[in-house]
Amino acid sequence: MILPTKHIRPERALLTVGADILACLKGPMTVSRVWDEVRRQRGEAVGVAPINYDWFILALDLLFITNAISFENGVLRKGAT
């Protein structure tokens, strides 16, 4: 789930989705704006499967518990790592 396995393709692994989120997070952004940006970028990429909102939230959780992002005053920010 976090890493690609025999049953989870590399572009659907939470680590990859988290990297996509961090790439979109150029400054403080709301969760809905990041979601829209990730969906847009994954929709434009060739051969990359779209993700559902549940998978997006799991990737946010992973980033949050590793201090890669923070959530304050309704916006997401990259962490200090």
* N-to-C SSE string, H for helix and E for strand: HHHEE
- Which of globular, elongated, flat, extended, rod-shaped describes the shape? globular
Distance between the termini: 23 Å
Catalogue the unreliable spans: none
Strand content: 5-15%
Which secondary-structure class do the elements indicate? mainly alpha
Trace the largest sheet across and list its strands. Answer: 1-2
Question: What's the number of helices?
Answer: 3
How big is the Rg?
Answer: 12 Å
Mean pLDDT: 92
Summarize the structure.
By secondary structure, the protein is mainly alpha-helical. The chain is 47% helix and 10% strand. The protein has a two-stranded antiparallel sheet.
Protein model, in words:
The protein contains three helices and two strands; from the N terminus they run H-H-H-E-E. The protein has a two-stranded antiparallel sheet with strand order 1-2. The mean pLDDT is 92. By secondary structure, it is mainly alpha-helical. The radius of gyration is 12 Å and the shape is globular.
